[in-house]
From TrEMBL:
<dbReference type="Pfam" id="PF00535">
    <property type="entry name" value="Glycos_transf_2"/>
</dbReference>
<feature type="domain" description="Glycosyltransferase 2-like">
    <location>
        <begin position="18"/>
        <end position="146"/>
    </location>
</feature>
<keyword id="KW-0328">Glycosyltransferase</keyword>
<comment type="similarity">
    <text>Belongs to the glycosyltransferase 2 family.</text>
</comment>
<dbReference type="InterPro" id="IPR001173">
    <property type="entry name" value="Glyco_trans_2-like"/>
</dbReference>
<keyword id="KW-0808">Transferase</keyword>
<dbReference type="InterPro" id="IPR029044">
    <property type="entry name" value="Nucleotide-diphossugar_trans"/>
</dbReference>
<protein>
    <submittedName>
        <fullName>Glycosyltransferase</fullName>
        <ecNumber>2.4.-.-</ecNumber>
    </submittedName>
</protein>
<dbReference type="GO" id="GO:0016757">
    <property type="term" value="F:glycosyltransferase activity"/>
</dbReference>
<dbReference type="InterPro" id="IPR050834">
    <property type="entry name" value="Glycosyltransf_2"/>
</dbReference>
Length: 335
């Protein structure tokens, strides 16, 4: 049965997955992104396509695709509300038991929805599942992804330092929104990162070890290197909120240290100036902070000693690598 069809009594069939795509001034890539969604091996889905007040050719593309495929429910916002508000609107409208997030510039592999849905159905304790992505595009070769370990047991300590995966690779149970009231935060934080931390309060999150999305990297997106480095306060605010969720507190100095030592998933050094200024004692500072943070989150029941120690060891190894990098850069500038 087509997902847009009706049952014999005339009631609309409930799809297996609601796909959510917020689009804003996306005319360059939107058609390719939509084709990759509509070409999934799992065709039992609805696509909530939110046009976030685009001023380019996006509305025409949305209208053309909505006429072509009855699985698409298109909504145009009168004013630009931002991706968090657009996704929250879609969560209010979603009908399926599982929700998949797709971006307006990525390319979904044909088996993406089927693989993630099968994983959630096979593991009732999982509330969310991600996947590996393959970067491509104009800046991909210069900004490789640098994720912390994908082991699900380490998800809780890992999220204190880095998001678990890119949000456009996310599929989660709608009950997170319908019953638990989770929404993407609209404050000046990385909404997907905080949303993942909130979801961990409800159950387990896993990252499938398969590449299921081609993740486009270009200079206009929020995660371009230039815009990421300019968003330090947003990152710090996200970290503070996530530490609170995990039952930890930190002062301003500790937050600056936490930000400087946390690996950036896009391979960037978060705060070169901090590492240069504290290059002689940052390792000892980081070690002491990680010991304090570990005690707090274990005492709060967020994670275990063993899991936190495993992630902390990775953080310290990565810190040594960042220090070597900034020292090399400083020496090359001096010569």
């Amino acid at each position: 049965m087509s997902p847009a069809a009706s049952d014999p009594d005339g009631a609309a069939a409930v799809p297996a997955v609601t796909v959510v795509m917020a689009a804003c001034n996306a005319q360059a890539y939107l058609a390719e992104a939509l084709d990759s969604v509509l070409g999934q091996t799992l065709d039992d889905f609805e696509l909530l396509l939110i046009d976030d007040a685009s001023i380019d050719g996006t509305p025409d593309i949305v209208a053309a695709y909505a006429r072509r495929d009855p699985r698409i429910r298109a909504i145009r916002l009168p004013h630009n509300a931002g991706v968090a508000n657009a996704r929250n609107l879609a969560l209010n409208m979603a009908r399926a038991p599982c929700v998949a997030i797709c971006d307006d510039d990525d390319v979904q592999h044909p088996e993406r929805l089927a693989a993630q849905l099968a994983s959630l159905r096979a593991h009732p304790d999982w509330v969310m599942v991600g996947a590996r992505v393959r970067p491509f595009g104009e800046i991909a070769p210069h900004a490789p992804l640098a994720w912390l370990p994908l082991d699900g047991v380490l998800a809780r300590p890992r999220i204190l330092f880095q998001a678990l995966f890119i949000d456009s690779a996310s599929m989660f149970r709608r009950d997170l929104a319908r019953i638990r009231g989770l929404r993407y935060p609209t404050a000046n934080v990385w909404e997907d990162w905080v949303f993942q931390a909130l979801a961990l309060q409800a159950g387990e999150i896993r990252v499938l070890p398969r590449i299921l999305i081609d993740y486009r990297r270009h200079s206009a997106q929020q995660t371009s290197p230039r815009r990421l480095l300019a968003a330090g306060q947003r990152t710090r605010a996200s970290m503070r909120r996530i530490l609170e969720i995990a039952g930890a507190t930190c002062g301003c100095a500790e937050l600056e240290l936490h930000h400087a030592i946390s690996p950036n998933p896009f391979g960037l050094v978060p705060d070169r100036a901090y590492l240069i200024d504290h290059r002689h004692d940052v390792v000892s500072r980081a070690t002491a902070w990680l010991e304090s943070l570990g005690r707090q989150v274990v005492r709060a029941g967020w994670t275990t000693d063993a899991a936190f120690e495993a992630v902390a060891a990775v953080i310290l190894r990565h810190l040594h690598g960042m220090l070597a990098q900034v020292r090399t850069e400083a020496e090359s500038r001096a010569t």
